[in-house]
Design a protein that fits this description.
Arc Repressor Mutant, subunit A, 6 helices, elongated, 10% strand, Replication initiation protein, mainly alpha, WH-like_DNA-bd_sf, Initiator_Rep_WH1, single chain, DNA-directed DNA polymerase activity
Length: 203
């Protein structure tokens, strides 16, 4: 006997045993409607979110709904079995039709349910990682400082020239400051004389 499976449902066979727990596998096999089984598998991927929306086109494709099905057929043959069978598995399960336009055309379906809270694995028994300080070489007890590199003749001459130029600039700056101080003293003396003459004239 040869059994063929629609390619759109290949993932059920390939991932069923690897992704389902034994309890989930029992839930899955107890479902009667093929559409309920398909939706069960899809919604389990969003179990920690508790909500998923598909456009009508994507919904038709994912569940391999015949093109001849009108919305009334989808309600009766697809959505009703899904709601009846999955309501006992997904808490607060509901299906909302999203409409658009004046005519209220259904463009998408939103599935909501109480999201699952997956407990975090216990960290007991795990060895705490030991943090080791990485010291620089110069801080180690056996550190031997490298020998200083001597300048070659050209480098030394360039350095000496720059230092000489720097010294000349310092001398020039000091000379300018001294001249400024001398000029300031001169102006202070003249201002004092002018103020004395002005006060004498007023008296």
């Amino acid at each position: 006997m040869i059994v063929s499976v629609n390619k759109r449902f290949d993932f059920f066979l390939n991932e069923l045993t690897s992704n389902f727990t034994r309890f989930e596998l029992e839930e899955f096999t107890n479902l009667e409607s093929k559409y309920s089984k398909a939706m069960y598998r899809l919604l389990k991927q969003w179990r920690t979110v508790g909500k998923k929306e598909w456009s009508i086109e994507d919904f038709r494709y994912l569940l391999d709904i015949p093109k001849s099905y009108q919305l009334i057929d989808i309600d009766r043959k697809v959505l009703n079995p899904i709601k009846n069978e999955l309501s006992s598995i997904f808490k607060n399960f509901s299906i909302r039709k999203i409409k658009q336009g004046r005519g209220g055309k259904v463009v998408a379906l939103e599935f909501t349910f109480q999201k699952e809270i997956i407990p975090k694995p216990s960290k007991k028994g795990n060895k705490a990682s030991i943090r080791r300080e990485i010291l620089p070489d110069w801080a180690k007890d056996d550190y031997i400082p490298p020998k200083p590199k001597l300048m070659d003749k050209k480098t030394y001459e360039d350095f000496a020239t720059k230092m000489a130029d720097f010294g000349n600039k310092i001398d020039s700056y000091e000379s300018t400051v001294k001249q400024y101080e001398k000029d300031l003293a001169h102006w202070e003396k003249n201002i004092s004389k002018i103020m004395y003459i002005s006060i004498t004239a007023l008296n």
